[in-house]
Amino acid sequence: MPQIVDTGILFALADRSDAWHARARTYVAASSEILLAPVTILTEVAYLLRDRIGPDAEASFVASLASGELAIENLTSADWARARDLMRSYEWLGMVDATVVAVAERLKVRTLATTDRRHFGMVRPAHVDRFTLVP
């Protein structure tokens, strides 16, 4: 079963000064599951890498995508509709996080690799009582 990743975990993997860096690297290195990124997180990751680390970090990220290091999941019309509903139910939940939840629900994924404990910990997905948040 794939494991969905969010923006924070991918940024933490790249930024050695991030508080989550060591935990993220250790976890990802030990995991045999496919890392699956909803397409909506990619521009957010790229922006943060360029803005906070520099253009080389962003270019490395794009190279990793080109080489298939990360599986990408496109959204369906139903995912977008579910994201809209989630944003209405949780007014503090932004589009990117709402699409992460929608994709996880559609694929019946229980585990999210994330640094965002606050938001993903408060969401009640349709397919499980709570997400398992790692690392």
Q: Can you give keywords for this protein?
A:
single chain, 135 residues, alpha/beta, Rossmann fold, 5-stranded parallel sheet, 5 strands, globular
- Number of distinct helices: 7
The CATH topology name reads Rossmann fold
| Whole-number total of structural domains | 1
CATH architecture: 3-Layer(aba) Sandwich
Q: How large is the radius of gyration?
A: 14 Å
Low-confidence stretches: none
N-to-C order of helices and strands: EHHEHHEHHEHE
- N→C terminal distance: 17 Å
Considering the protein shown, what is the CATH homologous superfamily? 5'-nuclease
- In helices, the fraction of residues equals 40-55%
Query: Care to count the β-strands?
Result: 5
Major sheet details: 5 strands, parallel
What CATH first level would be assigned?
A: Alpha Beta
**Strand numbers in spatial order across the main sheet:** 3-2-1-4-5
Q: Which class do the helix and strand fractions yield?
A: alpha/beta
Shape call: globular
Average of per-residue pLDDT values: 96
Strand content: 5-15%
